[in-house]
Amino acid sequence: MFVIKYKKVFVLISVCLVALSLASIFIFGLKFGIDFKGGAQMEVTFAGTRPEQALVKDELSKLSLGESLVQPTGTDGYSIKTRALSESERLSVVTALGKDATEKSFSSIGPSVGAELARKSMITFILVSLGIIFFIAFSFRKVSKPISSWKYGLIAIGTLIHDILIPVGVFVILSKMFGAEVDTLFVVAILTILGLSVSDTIVVFDRIRENLRGGHYKTFEEAVGKSLEQVYTRSIATSLTVILALLSLVFWGPESTRNFSLMLTAGMFFGTYSSIFLASPLLIFAKDWQEKRSK
Fold first, then answer.
1. Which of 109, 130, 161 is the last residue in one of the domains?
2. Could you tell me if 104 and 120 lie in one domain?
3. Number of C-beta neighbours around residue 237 at 10 A
4. Who has greater pLDDT, 293 or 223?
5. Percent helix, strand and coil across the chain, each rounded to 5?
6. 124 with 182, same domain?
7. How far apart are CA 78 and CA 52, in angstroms?
């Protein structure tokens, strides 16, 4: 019953974290990569020793290509992202990197393709949210008291928004400090967080449903509190296992997936937090609000 007793504190913590995330997003903004705004991406390998990343950036800055992003790939190459390049500019990049440099791949994407990707990503999120609401409302149709079954779905969506906004806020800080860009991996991370988070929330809600149907507890608060005590160990242990695996990718994995791993780590951590310390207290607040309206 610890969570229920201090429910206002835990909800306040979530509100503060979301507010800080929104503030960072509005102040610094998201830095979109070529997948969204259009540009060029080149992968270059080196026959000899790979030069230092700072040296590659210095050579590119001499070509007046504007802002560029250089990321290591494998043990002998770099991925270089720039604005759209002409054929002569593309050749000048390889030449500037020295005779040991070989162009492995080159691709370009127009801003219209990026806009289409952004639109489809938003549609996907909306459809996933609606699917979650309908699924939970249907699954909880037999326990519509003391709160309506569809409110479980709305609360689940609320916690999902919480679980997405905070990792996005973390990503904005990474973008400001290290130049991380929003790309397709960012979208994949968001959708993965959606799946992981809602799974944990549904496990908690399902335990509450079973205890309500059993009728073993006198009050709704008691049923929710006891349900949380029954899933603490399972939820935290499972999440901790995944987080440890993700942290290993952050510290020892390839550079190209580091930001992706950090996003998932933050999403997994705050997803577990919201399932236990946010979603359940919100059920209590929803019940109290419904009772006040009925008086």
1. 109
2. no
3. 9
4. 223
5. 70, 10, 20
6. yes
7. 10
Helix (H, G, I), strand (E, B) or coil at 50: coil
Q: How far apart are CA 258 and CA 249, in angstroms?
A: 7
* CATH code for the domain of 167: 1.20.1640.10
267 close to 167: Cβ distance less than 8 angstroms: yes
Same domain assignment for residues 96 and 155: no
Cβ burial, residue 5 (10 Å; 0-12/13-18/19+): exposed
For the stretch 12-40, pLDDT in tens is 999 999 999 999 999 988 887 776 777 88
pLDDT digits (tens, 9 = 90+) for 116-138: 766 777 787 788 778 877 777 77
Residue 43 near residue 73 (C-beta atoms within 8 A): yes
The pLDDT value recorded for residue 111 is 64
Contact present, 78 and 50 (Cβ < 8 Å): yes
Range of the structural domain that residue 196 is part of: 2-33+112-294
Q: How far is CA 4 from the centre of its chain?
A: 27
DSSP annotation of 215 reads T
Among 166, 168, 158, 136, smallest CA distance to 269 is for 166
Number of structural domains the chain divides into = 2
Q: Which stretch of 87-96, 109-118, 212-221 has the lowest confidence by average pLDDT?
A: 109-118
Tokens of 10: 């835990």
Residue written as token pair 């998932």:
264
Whether residue 189 is found in the same domain as residue 250 = yes
Contact at 8 Å (CB) between 172 and 29?
A: yes
